[in-house]
Specification:
With about 475 residues, the chain is mainly β. The chain is built from three helices and 24 strands. It has a domain of about 300 residues: Pectate Lyase C-like (3 Solenoid). Helix 2 links the parallel strand 1 and strand 2. It starts with 7 loop residues before the first helix and ends with a helix.
Length: about 475
């Protein structure tokens, strides 16, 4: 209600108006002035500390609560760790401060705490403190606190990498009974142990005790001998470098690992390289030999062996290789007796080391499914002897190769629903092979032999080949570590 001119009430109003104008012009401390940036309107309480900005991949920073008169702004809580790399949502506005009473000075709002970084994300910045102000009579409440901004999407993968992937179902020779073992179970239900160094892994995989071993980090290169009854699983992008040897071992699962041999671009990097011989003097990335059996490689990325990537020799048996990618870095082989010059000794997979090895007879049975032979593989995809070799639902894109799948001395190959794309000589069949039977395969852009001959075998296990219609996309998206 406005007082009439000349009245005492009217005079009091005019005096108050003059005093208020002086506050605005001179920002007198007694008037409770504070900048809008601090969230402290004239005559109001100390504003809330601004919310901590959000971490990447985290949830939004908690809201800075508004400063009540004389009260500090609440701390911004930390952003929660990101679970899937999704953008954090924006924080809702803070509530307004309560009206000041009795003109008591307002204390400064506390600084908002910095948001904690989500997985692979950056922490939020600390919120600014509200400035102190003197309370005016019946002062206005502090302004509403600003909402926290939404966090940017993080680069971390969905889910926790400390939880091992399920992997695929065991299909093929590794699931069959033989040589005193009924199927491949690895370390079974043993309590998992995590290793982060070459020395720790070398120790953990030795012996025959059942163990489940999680590998994290990029391990130094070295030679690792794997004993029996082991499950070895890579987590968080784990890498093993050097040479894995399974000699006489049984019941082993190797899953979700990137395994890199010594010969990355140069066979001479292998500690056993002999320049008078050439690349074959070096180590395979993985050797399965000396009657090792019931071995399963699943969702691995295997590359750059000086000799081969994964060789199965000397009476080894009951092996399945699934959802695994094979490839090489570019390299030549211009030294030694076995030099192949510019073609390079990039020979990926050998089954049987020579013709007429007595210990191979009745063994070397291997299943390959949903595997991918990719960049710079020259040959041996695989090169086989003696065994019953089953390939189904595989992909070959190793353009520039010399040949792909070979049936050698005493070997019987069954190749089904597989894509040979833009490669040379999909099939190579030796005269002393049992044969190679081809069913449902496609050969887009490929040249050379695409028809089988001779006999093969009927697998003793159940399996259902996928259609080739979407097979290439599926393998390219899913082969290798999950």
């Amino acid at each position: 209600m406005q007082a009439s001119p000349g009245s005492a009430h009217y005079t009091l109003q005019r005096l108050l108006l003059v005093a208020s104008s002086a506050c605005l012009l001179h920002l007198a401390p007694a008037c409770g002035g504070g900048s809008d940036d601090d969230g402290t309107p004239p005559g109001g309480a100390g504003a809330a500390g601004a919310a901590g900005s959000l971490s990447r991949a985290g949830a939004s920073g908690a809201l800075g609560a508004s400063g009540a008169l004389g009260g500090g702004g609440a701390l911004g809580t930390s952003g929660a760790p990101g679970s899937s790399g999704a953008p954090g949502s924006s924080g809702a506005p803070g509530t307004s401060g309560a009206p000041g009473s009795s003109g008591a000075p307002g204390s400064s709002g506390a600084s908002g705490a910095a948001g904690k970084g989500g997985a692979g994300g950056k922490g939020g910045s600390t919120g600014s403190a509200g400035t102190s102000s003197a309370g005016g009579t019946g002062g206005k409440g502090g302004s509403t606190g600003s909402a926290g901004a939404g966090g940017a999407a993080g680069s971390g993968s969905t889910g926790s990498c400390t939880t091992p992937p399920v992997g695929s179902a065991l299909v093929g020779w590794a699931a069959q009974s033989g040589m005193g073992v009924s199927t491949t179970t690895g370390g079974g239900a043993a309590t998992p142990q995590t290793v982060t160094t070459l020395a720790a892994l070398t120790s953990a995989v030795s012996g025959t005790a059942a163990k489940v071993i999680y590998v994290t980090g990029k391990l130094a290169a070295g030679k690792i001998n794997i004993g029996s009854n082991k499950t070895i699983v890579g987590l968080c992008g784990a890498e093993i470098h050097g040479h894995l040897n399974l000699s006489g071992s049984s019941n082993v699962i190797v899953r979700n690992l990137k395994i890199v041999g010594y010969g990355v671009g140069n066979c001479a990097l292998d500690p056993d390289y002999d320049s008078s011989v050439g690349c074959s003097s070096g180590n395979d990335t993985i050797s399965v030999q000396n009657q090792a059996h019931h071995i399963w490689f699943d969702h691995c990325d295997i590359s750059d062996g000086a000799d081969g990537n994964l060789d199965i020799t000397k009476g080894a048996d009951f092996v399945t290789v699934s959802w695994t990618k094979f490839h090489y870095s570019p390299r030549t082989d211009n030294s030694g007796d076995d030099s192949t010059g510019a073609a390079g000794h990039r020979f990926s997979n050998l089954i049987g080391s020579a013709d007429n090895v007595a210990g191979d007879v009745g063994h070397l049975n291997v299943t390959w499914h949903h595997d991918w032979w990719a960049d710079n593989v020259n040959q041996r995809m695989p090169r086989t002897r003696a065994g019953k070799i089953h390939l189904f639902n595989n992909l070959f894109t190793a353009t520039g190769n010399s040949y792909c799948s070979n049936a050698g001395q005493g070997a019987a190959l069954l190749v089904e629903n597989t894509i040979y794309s833009n490669v040379k000589a999909p099939f190579q069949i030796d005269s002393n092979a049992v044969g190679l039977v081809s069913k449902g395969n496609t050969f887009p852009g490929s040249t050379g032999t695409t028809t089988g001959s001779g006999d093969a075998f009927t697998p003793p296990y159940a399996y259902t080949p996928d259609s080739v219609s979407n097979l290439q996309a599926s393998i390219e998206a899913n082969a290798g570590p999950e």
